[in-house]
Automatic annotation (TrEMBL):
<feature type="transmembrane region" description="Helical">
    <location>
        <begin position="686"/>
        <end position="703"/>
    </location>
</feature>
<dbReference type="InterPro" id="IPR008250">
    <property type="entry name" value="ATPase_P-typ_transduc_dom_A_sf"/>
</dbReference>
<feature type="transmembrane region" description="Helical">
    <location>
        <begin position="119"/>
        <end position="136"/>
    </location>
</feature>
<feature type="transmembrane region" description="Helical">
    <location>
        <begin position="156"/>
        <end position="175"/>
    </location>
</feature>
<feature type="domain" description="HMA">
    <location>
        <begin position="9"/>
        <end position="73"/>
    </location>
</feature>
<keyword id="KW-0479">Metal-binding</keyword>
<feature type="transmembrane region" description="Helical">
    <location>
        <begin position="381"/>
        <end position="403"/>
    </location>
</feature>
<comment type="similarity">
    <text>Belongs to the cation transport ATPase (P-type) (TC 3.A.3) family. Type IB subfamily.</text>
</comment>
<protein>
    <submittedName>
        <fullName>Heavy metal translocating P-type ATPase</fullName>
    </submittedName>
</protein>
<feature type="transmembrane region" description="Helical">
    <location>
        <begin position="709"/>
        <end position="727"/>
    </location>
</feature>
<dbReference type="InterPro" id="IPR017969">
    <property type="entry name" value="Heavy-metal-associated_CS"/>
</dbReference>
<dbReference type="InterPro" id="IPR018303">
    <property type="entry name" value="ATPase_P-typ_P_site"/>
</dbReference>
<dbReference type="InterPro" id="IPR027256">
    <property type="entry name" value="P-typ_ATPase_IB"/>
</dbReference>
<dbReference type="InterPro" id="IPR036412">
    <property type="entry name" value="HAD-like_sf"/>
</dbReference>
<dbReference type="Pfam" id="PF00702">
    <property type="entry name" value="Hydrolase"/>
</dbReference>
<keyword id="KW-0472">Membrane</keyword>
<dbReference type="InterPro" id="IPR023298">
    <property type="entry name" value="ATPase_P-typ_TM_dom_sf"/>
</dbReference>
Amino acid sequence: MAVPLEAFTPVELTIGGMTCASCAHRIEKKLNRMPGVEASVNYATEKATVRLPSGTDVADAIAVVEKTGYTAALPDPEPVAAETDPVTAELGRRLAVTAALGLPVLALSMVPALQFTNWQWLAFALASPVAVWGAWPFHRAAVVNARHGAATMDTLVSIGVAAAWLTSCASLFLGDAGMPGMHMEFRLWGSAGDELYLEVAAVVTVFVLAGRYLEARARRRSGAALRALLAVGAKDVGVLRDGVEHRVAVGDLRPGDEFVVRPGETVATDGTVVDGRSAVDASVVTGESVPVEVTAGDDVVGGTVNAGGRLVVRATRVGADTALARIGRAVEEAQSGKAAAQRLADRVSGVFVPVVLVVALATFLGWWLSGASAGHALTTAVAVLVIACPCALGLATPTALLVGTGRGAQVGILVKGPEALEATRRVDTVVLDKTGTVTTGRMTLAAVVPTQGLDAADLLRRTGSLEDASEHPVGRAVAVAAREAGPLATATDVVATAGAGIAGTVGGVALRVGRPDWAHADLPPALRDALEEHESAGRTVLVVVEDGEPAGVLAVADAVRPTSREAVAGFRSLGLHPVLLTGDHERTARTVADAVGIDDVVAGARPEDKLAHVRALQAQGRVVAVVGDGVNDAAALAVADLGIALGTGTDVAVEAGDLTLVRADLLAAVDAVRLSRRTLSTIRGNLFWAFAYNVAALPLAAAGLLNPVVASAAMAFSSVFVVTNSLRLRRFR
């Protein structure tokens, strides 16, 4: 019997001690062996997402990780955003010392002119601290892994360095290599079968440490976008208590508190402006560079900056409920996910190291038994061990995902997970909602046309009183206009039909207000002419029925967003066929479609019709993206191959989408598809080069065509290349 989702407790753990993708794979496998536990470990973010069944304590999961040879802990609730971390700093110090000692060993070994009498003992004195202390992290990890019957990249490096150093020790102390006058040659490609391999032990250590250090720094940079986003915010705030301002910590704010935001200050938390007028710079949250004018009644988001006058804001959401905190959680969840290609890479890296150990042993035996010297066979085997380290394979997906989602958050695009990225590659059709998506959604009442004998003001008051219970932009426009004209009455027995209209009773009169076909009214000629006139002008028309008789029509205007036409052209340039799918009348929909350059229009669609149309497109072999913001779009967003929700819309629409746009701009949807495709392209490029590197390099190493020094440099470069390639996503515009 399946365990209900509610029975699981999701927990995030910070993992320490991982050095490659094989480590992450081992931890993940151990955690998933716990009864009922589902775990995913991300090497790039150094975090594990663990779903624990009821009755399982998080301490049990931590104990399993520690028994595997790593550390685990619950994340710090308030992490300090430092430029460097202790692990990176320690790697930097170790690299500096080993480079200072190891590079002279390389020079002595490769330049015969530098080989003075007894030079080999100086090389030994310099190389030994490098091979023992410098490579100690690899040796220690290899021993820990061996205790648990496992092998990782550290095992390969440790064996390679130890074999080269111990063989050199044997040649120096037991053979003739320690004799005065000893000389040797160095070959960049292949091996001469020399008696000493001190430069191999030293330089392999230096290059691998260099790769680790550069990788650690680059990985920290890859997460900088999210850290910068979460670090935004005020530390204290002036709260009004009985008309007096008191400075308190932001953590002490409660919903309902009113606080002051002066020019240049950061808005402390999400809220609604109750007094004042100003321009607010929301670029940190939405990516929009132009400040937005706000006044009483407008919502503001915590983390934005007041660029104009003094504001008084009433807090609506605090702490973990704020938009900024929710954005952070969404991005972290996306970064912890794994694309299908990464899951394949994890499985490969899990078996890759043992296979490489076997290949290295076979290489040594093959060369030795074929008549080559033991030294040449050893050097070739060490090259195989070093070149095969699967670091780049493990970094290919998570680093690109880390940078891409972080950059997306900076420009107002939230990606829910790798699956959304993979969907963007295949999408060929984009279905657009009209109201609030292609248009601004800021409806205003354009006209009230009552039937003969009725007063327009009375009709507006009754209709507005009923629409005051509606969340639809059209209904809100009517309610706002009615409230401005005078006090509203109380509506009872209110029933809203999504995408169609609303019914109820106001002052003893039964009202139905909505689409003409839903209202079921036989309109007189004057009202029918008014309806056709306003629909032909692109306005949305509501029919009002009182006690079963037509009472009038209301026309509501909604302006097309200035960027919508450019956005439609952008979709076409990405190979997507645009479709306008709306609940509005055919004429209104066609007017808007003509304004933005859409040919394919489906009008009069209820929520179930939208769902059916998306499924019909999919049945035709289309891969469909849906862009919407309302409750009536949620079902279509959920069933679409790619759901893009405007974050300014309803929570249910945002939850149903795969991508969420923080700013209300259709052009952001184009950017979201572009960023997703760019990120996916980077992931695929990284994986290609990581696989191609190992596949191409292993035979060269086994054939004796790669010196271990060159192999270690190439291995380090491959990891740095993958991370640096991912960092290019930070320049996305």
